[in-house]
User: Which sequence fits this backbone?
């Protein structure tokens, strides 16, 4: 009864309960629609502490069993009875005991990180077992690393690994047994929460079907309250009948489902407080879009996440590490080539050796993209006049015989040597080795709205377009390949593009 004041079990109340109680199975007709509710069954701090104690006992028992199987019980007994061997045996046990305490602590901490002491009831056994395996595996690896760094050679690595396997099985085993025990009790109606649903619409019916089919959630649906009774025997009245129905049905919790106006929610809240009932509000699921959406608070406001695109944090970290290492090595090894090219540029035409062009990068951020100068000074000012001779279809500009390109510049472009200084941009984080090519500001201003998606990632020195359709004049082809790269990115794709870039450099396909 969730701490509610005792209700008088009068004959009237019992009669109402018998008459209003829906028939068994009436709430299963909306099955298969699925309402995802996160129902925590942590049982408070005492129960969580009990679960942690059980884990520690299991870990100690498993480790002791593995130790005895490895060294034998007589090995320990001899150390206790023979004075001449007592000290070395006790030292051996003392060494294992210290690491066992550390191991138990690591497992408890790892289980906390996997939320194994606050398990939602809808979590299935397979998922929970995998979480246990992750926790035990992490703790075992950390213990092995600690033993290795400590320089202790008396601890058997075989004992540690076997203990990890045993602990994984025992910790998952007792949780599975507990789950089956609780599930069996709930299926018999023991420990369930009698529930009243306000709103007999689609969301309310789906919620009732979910509770009926998933008895492990621990809810027993008594019926509905709806402002528009439609003759359904499951509808026990309107919101105005909440007190009468709640007392008659011995309700423990009330769920208010959409659509529900403010006055309805306020009325149910006041009555729930008066009757000391737990009250929940199920938001509008937007035609099923929010069925499996988690709800969290942001600045104290509840928010339902309808869609989330996870960020491959590990993959991006590896990509960045590869960028830093390769760009640093590349800058060092290409220094002689850059020096020779710089001398040639200086002798070929007046002006600076490097050309720091402004380009548009990730999220529209402007940055200086470093290249060797391959055009005459003031080439940017002449670009607008040459636009009508553009050989590309779309925003970006390209000419085969661009009059602004110098003699040295044509050769440097052919072998893509002019782009070597962009390794500096990669090292600084403005660019990546692989990604969409950075476009000038005036080209980006001609983008269509959907073209801006290519700015979601760091631009690259090479990309999917460069190794598959470099000679294709269509801007749309370039854009489609860039978006395909963004949507299907992986470290393997980056590696394949880098490997395909090398033959393109050898063929001197630049322009």
Assistant:
């Amino acid at each position: 009864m969730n701490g509610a004041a005792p209700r008088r079990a009068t004959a009237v109340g019992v009669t109402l309960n018998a008459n209003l109680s829906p028939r068994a199975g009436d709430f299963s007709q909306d099955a298969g629609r699925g309402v995802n509710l996160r129902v925590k069954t942590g049982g408070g701090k005492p129960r969580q502490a009990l679960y942690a104690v059980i884990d520690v006992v299991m870990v100690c028992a498993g480790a002791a069993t593995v130790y005895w199987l490895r060294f034998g019980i007589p090995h320990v007994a001899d150390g206790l009875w023979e004075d001449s061997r007592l000290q070395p045996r006790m030292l051996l046990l003392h060494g294992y005991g210290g690491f066992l305490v550390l191991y138990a602590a690591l497992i408890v901490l790892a289980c906390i990180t996997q939320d194994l002491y606050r398990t939602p009831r809808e979590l299935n056994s397979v998922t929970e077992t995998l979480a246990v395996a992750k926790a035990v595996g992490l703790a075992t690896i950390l213990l092995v690393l600690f033993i290795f760094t400590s320089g202790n050679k008396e601890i058997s690595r075989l004992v540690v690994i076997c203990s990890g396997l045993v602990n994984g099985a025992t910790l998952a085993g007792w949780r599975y047994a507990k789950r089956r025990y609780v599930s069996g009790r709930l299926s018999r109606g023991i420990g369930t929460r009698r529930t009243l649903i306000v709103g007999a619409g689609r969301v309310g019916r789906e919620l009732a079907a979910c509770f009926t089919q998933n008895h492990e959630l621990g809810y027993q649906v008594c019926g509905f309250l709806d402002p528009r009774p439609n003759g359904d025997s499951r509808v026990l009245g309107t919101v105005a009948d909440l007190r009468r129905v709640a007392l008659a049905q011995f309700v423990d919790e009330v769920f208010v489902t959409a659509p529900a106006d403010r006055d309805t929610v306020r009325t149910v809240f006041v009555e729930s407080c008066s009757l000391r009932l737990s009250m929940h509000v199920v938001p509008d699921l937007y035609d099923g879009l929010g069925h499996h959406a988690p709800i969290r608070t942001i600045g104290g406001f509840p928010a339902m996440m309808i869609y989330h695109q996870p960020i491959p944090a590990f993959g991006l970290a590896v990509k960045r590490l590869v960028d830093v290492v390769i760009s640093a090595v590349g800058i060092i090894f290409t220094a002689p080539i850059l020096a020779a090219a710089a001398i040639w540029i200086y002798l070929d035409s007046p002006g600076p050796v490097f050309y720091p062009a402004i380009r548009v990068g990730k999220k529209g951020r402007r940055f200086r993209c470093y290249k060797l100068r391959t055009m005459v000074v003031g080439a940017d000012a002449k670009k607008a006049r040459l636009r009508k001779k553009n050989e590309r279809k779309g925003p970006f500009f390209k000419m085969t015989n661009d009059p602004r390109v110098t003699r040295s510049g044509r050769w440097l472009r052919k072998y893509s040597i002019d782009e070597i200084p962009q390794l500096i941009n990669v090292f600084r984080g403005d660019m990546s080795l692989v990604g969409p090519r950075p476009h000038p500001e005036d080209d980006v201003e001609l983008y269509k709205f959907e073209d801006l998606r290519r700015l979601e990632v760091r631009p690259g020195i090479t990309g999917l377009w460069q190794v598959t359709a470099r000679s294709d004049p269509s801007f749309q082809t370039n854009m489609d390949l860039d978006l395909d790269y963004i949507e299907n990115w992986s470290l393997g794709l980056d590696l394949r593009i880098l490997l395909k870039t090398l033959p393109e450099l050898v063929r001197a396909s630049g322009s």
Summary: The longest helix spans residues 83-113. The chain has three domains: 11-30+192-304, 44-186, 314-506.
